[in-house]
Amino acid sequence: SAVISQKPSRDICQRGTSLTIQCQVDSQVTMMFWYRQQPGQSLTLIATANQGSEATYESGFVIDKFPISRPNLTFSTLTVSNMSPEDSSIYLCSVPGLSYGYTFGSGTRLTVV
Amino acid sequence: GENVEQHPSTLSVQEGDSAVIKCTYSDSASNYFPWYKQELGKGPQLIIDIRSNVGEKKDQRIAVTLNKTAKHFSLHITETQPEDSAVYFCAASEGWGKLQFGAGTQVVVTP
Fold this sequence. Notes:
The structure holds two protein chains of two kinds.
Chain A lengths: L3 E4 L2 E4 L5 E7 L5 E7 L5 E8 L5 E2 L10 E5 L2 E6 L8 E8 L5 E3 L3 E5 L1
Parallel strand pairs in A: 2-11
Antiparallel strand pairs in A: 1-3, 3-8, 4-5, 4-9, 5-6, 7-8, 9-10, 9-11
Chain B lengths: L3 E4 L2 E5 L4 E7 L6 E7 L6 E7 L4 E4 L2 E6 L4 E6 L8 E7 L7 E2 L3 E6 L1
Parallel strand pairs in B: 2-11
Antiparallel strand pairs in B: 1-3, 3-8, 4-5, 4-9, 6-7, 7-8, 9-10, 9-11
């Protein structure tokens, strides 16, 4: 399965600022997924990022708040914009593996103060 | 869309006993059912998965069963060990479609 490197692993940010999270994969993948995991909660899909096209956002998530870049088949970024304490979560990227399996990165633990 | 319910939310077992977590799904088109283990401070790790063309799959102490008619699937962990303590998530998807996750089960294995 693919190996995912996600940066930063954690950060504490001031409200009103933005944070860009990076996801690097050791192999080329068509689809990359970004999830949010609020404290003590399950995983919620934010958007699907395909190389060469606009990301597809799930209901409740908008591009202005969570802009995504996908410049090539091994890299993607998610920006959390104009942060508020409600954005404090773990943000995870994920890629498809073999036979429908999906691999997750270790996550970025974001605290907004 | 797909809705996945997971029970129980917490599960405490004695070391050596078995643990069972159950999930139900709503979309009959779903055909892929993975289980993830998430340890504190880490991302979810796939531990076992099953497709709709089989009813059971085993991997050492872990097994998953699927009942398509009833739309439910279960994770079975036998001979539990302290290192099995974690949060477990079930999920469902149609092929390479969106993964819909259950709410998670906190498993605590006490020595």
